[in-house]
C-alpha cells in the first residue's frame, strides 16, 4: 500500500516536457469553448427558426456526430504521421468549420449551420484523439490519470468563456427573445417580413463568436507549427497494424467497458448542460437568466475538477469515479421528482459530480495500452457520439408537454439518470479489478 501511494504521488510532468505540455493543455480550453458556446444554441435556434426541441437538438447531433465520424480516421492519421501533424490538421479543420458560419448566416439555412458544426468537430475529434494520449504519454504511467485530469481542468476554463459569451453577448442580444410587459415572446406574433429582419440580425449575432474563435485557432496553428514537439515513449508506430491493435483492444475488458461508460457519461453531460435552459424556462426563468445557472454549474464543475485531481494523490481514480457517480444519481433524482428551484439547484449541483468523470474514465480505460493507446483514444473519442444520439431523444420527451403528474422536462432527465448508473457500474467494476491486482502485486 505504501509503495502504491508513492507511485500515486510521483511527478506529474517532467521539466523537459513542460512547454509542449502547456501548449497541448491550452487546446483543451479551445474545444471547451466550442462545446459550451454551442450548447445554448439549441434553445436559440429553436426560437429563431421556430422549430421544436427535437429538431433544434440536431445541433448536438451534428456537433457530436463529427466526433463519431472522424475519431478513427484521426487515430489512423496520427499513427501514420505524428501527434504534431494530427494536432495541426485538427486546428485547420476547427478553423474551417468556424469560418463556415459566415456563409451559413448569409444564407440563413439551419442545415448549413449543422454542416459548419459537423466540420468544426472533425477538427475537435483530431484534437481530442491526439491531445489526450499525448498528455498521458508525457511522463510516468503511474501519474497518467492525474496528469490528464490536470490538463482537462483547463477545458472548463474555455467552457466558462463560451458560456459567458453565450449569456452576455449572444442570448441577451437576440431580438427574437424580446418580450412584452406580461413576459410573453413577441417574435411568434410578428409578420413574416418582420421575422425575416430579426432572423438576419440574430443569425449574425450567433455567427460572430465562431468567426473570432476561428481566428484564435489559426494563431494556435502557427505557434504549434513553429515549436518543436517531443517524441514520447508511446509515440506513434505505423509498423503496428491497426487491425491487430483493434483486436487487442476489443479483447481488453477494462478498455471495452470504458468506451461504453464514456458513451453514457458524455450523453449525460450534454443533456444536463443543453437542457438546463429548458428546465429553467419551465419555471418561468428567461433564457439569458437561465444561462447564468449554466455558468454557475461550470464554475462548480471547474472547482470540483481541481479538487478531485488533488484527491487522486490519496484515493484510487476508480473509487472516486464510483463515489461521484452515486452523487450524480442522487442529484438527478432531485431534478426529476423535486422540481422547481430546488430541482434546478440539483441540476446545477450535478456538475460537481460530473467533473472528474471524462478524464478519469479516459485514463482508466487507456492504462497499460502502450502503443495501442492512440487507436484506443480514438474509440474513447468516438464514444462522444453519445452526446449526438441522446439529446434529440430528450428533446422529443420535452416536446410531449407533461407525462402524468410530472412535467415532461423533469421526466426527460431519466435519461441522464440511466447514464450515471452505467458510469457507477464501470467505477465499481474497475475498483474491484484494482483491488484484485493490488493483492496480486502486494500480497499481505
In short:
With about 450 residues, this protein is mostly helical. The protein contains 22 helices and two strands.
Salient structural properties:
444 residues; mainly alpha; Growth Hormone, Chain: A; two-stranded antiparallel sheet; 22 helices; 1% strand; globular
Shape: globular
Major β-sheet, in short?
Answer: 2 strands, antiparallel
CATH superfamily: MFS general substrate transporter like domains
Helical proportion? over 70%
Please identify, by name, the CATH architecture: Up-down Bundle
Strand content: under 5%
Spatial ordering of strands, largest sheet: 1-2
- Residue ranges: pLDDT <50 for 5 or more in a row? 1-8, 438-444
- Tell me the Rg in angstroms: 22 Å
Number of domains: 1
Number of strands: 2
The average pLDDT is 85
SSE string, helices as H and strands as E:
HHHHHHHHHHHHHHHHHHHHEEHH
CATH class: Mainly Alpha
**Helix vs. strand class:** mainly alpha
**Count of helices?**
22
Termini separation: 10 Å
CATH fold group: Growth Hormone, Chain: A
Topology record:
Elements: H1 2-8, H2 18-38, H3 41-48, H4 53-56, H5 58-80, H6 83-99, H7 101-107, H8 110-137, H9 144-152, H10 155-170, H11 192-226, H12 242-251, H13 253-274, H14 276-281, H15 287-311, H16 317-337, H17 340-354, H18 357-366, H19 373-382, H20 386-398, E1 402-403, E2 406-407, H21 408-411, H22 414-441
Antiparallel strand pairs: 1-2
Helix pairs in contact: 2-8, 2-10, 5-6, 5-8, 5-19, 5-20, 6-8, 6-11, 7-8, 7-11, 8-9, 8-19, 9-15, 9-18, 10-15, 13-18, 13-19, 13-20, 13-22, 15-17, 16-17, 16-18, 16-22
Amino acid at each position: 500500500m505504501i509503495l502504491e501511494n508513492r507511485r500515486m504521488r510521483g511527478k506529474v510532468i517532467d521539466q523537459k516536457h513542460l512547454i509542449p505540455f502547456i501548449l497541448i493543455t491550452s487546446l483543451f480550453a479551445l474545444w471547451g469553448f466550442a462545446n459550451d458556446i454551442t450548447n445554448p444554441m439549441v434553445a436559440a435556434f429553436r426560437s429563431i427558426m421556430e422549430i421544436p426541441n427535437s429538431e433544434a437538438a440536431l445541433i448536438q447531433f451534428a456537433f457530436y456526430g463529427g466526433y463519431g465520424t472522424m475519431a478513427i480516421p484521426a487515430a489512423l492519421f496520427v499513427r501514420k504521421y505524428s501527434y504534431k501533424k494530427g494536432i495541426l490538421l485538427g486546428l485547420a479543420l476547427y478553423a474551417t468549420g468556424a469560418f463556415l458560419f459566415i456563409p451559413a448566416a448569409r444564407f440563413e439555412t439551419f442545415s448549413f449551420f449543422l454542416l459548419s458544426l459537423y466540420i468544426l468537430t472533425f477538427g475537435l475529434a483530431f484534437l481530442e484523439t491526439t491531445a489526450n494520449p499525448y498528455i498521458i504519454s508525457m511522463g510516468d504511467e503511474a501519474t497518467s490519470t492525474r496528469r490528464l485530469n490536470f490538463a482537462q481542468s483547463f477545458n472548463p476554463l474555455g467552457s466558462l468563456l463560451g458560456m459567458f459569451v453565450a449569456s452576455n453577448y449572444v442570448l441577451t442580444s437576440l431580438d427574437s427573445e424580446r418580450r412584452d410587459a406580461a413576459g410573453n415572446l413577441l417574435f411568434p406574433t410578428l409578420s413574416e417580413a418582420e421575422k425575416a429582419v430579426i432572423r438576419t440580425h440574430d443569425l449574425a449575432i450567433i455567427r460572430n463568436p465562431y468567426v473570432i474563435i476561428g481566428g484564435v485557432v489559426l494563431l494556435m496553428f502557427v505557434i504549434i507549427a513553429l515549436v518543436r514537439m517531443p517524441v514520447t515513449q508511446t509515440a506513434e508506430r505505423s509498423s503496428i497494424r491497426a487491425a491487430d491493435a483493434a483486436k487487442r483492444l476489443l479483447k481488453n475488458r477494462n478498455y471495452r467497458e470504458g468506451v461504453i461508460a464514456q458513451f453514457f457519461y458524455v450523453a449525460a453531460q450534454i443533456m444536463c448542460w443543453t437542457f438546463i435552459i429548458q428546465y429553467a424556462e419551465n419555471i418561468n426563468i428567461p433564457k439569458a437568466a437561465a444561462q447564468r445557472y449554466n455558468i454557475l454549474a461550470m464554475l462548480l464543475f471547474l472547482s470540483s475538477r481541481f479538487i478531485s485531481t488533488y484527491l487522486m494523490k490519496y484515493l484510487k481514480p476508480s473509487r472516486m469515479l464510483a463515489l461521484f457517480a452515486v452523487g450524480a444519481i442522487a442529484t438527478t433524482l432531485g431534478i426529476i421528482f423535486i422540481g422547481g428551484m430546488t430541482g434546478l439547484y440539483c441540476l446545477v449541483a450535478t456538475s460537481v459530480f460530473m467533473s472528474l468523470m471524462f478524464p478519469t474514465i479516459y485514463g482508466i480505460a487507456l492504462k497499460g495500452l502502450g502503443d495501442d493507446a492512440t487507436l484506443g483514444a480514438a474509440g474513447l473519442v468516438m464514444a462522444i457520439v453519445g452526446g449526438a444520439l441522446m439529446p434529440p431523444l430528450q428533446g422529443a420527451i420535452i416536446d410531449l408537454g407533461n407525462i402524468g403528474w410530472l412535467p415532461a422536462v423533469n421526466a426527460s432527465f431519466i435519461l441522464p439518470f440511466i447514464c450515471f448508473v452505467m458510469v457507477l457500474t464501470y467505477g465499481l467494476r474497475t475498483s474491484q479489478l484494482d483491488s484484485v491486482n493490488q493483492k496480486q502485486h502486494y500480497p499481505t
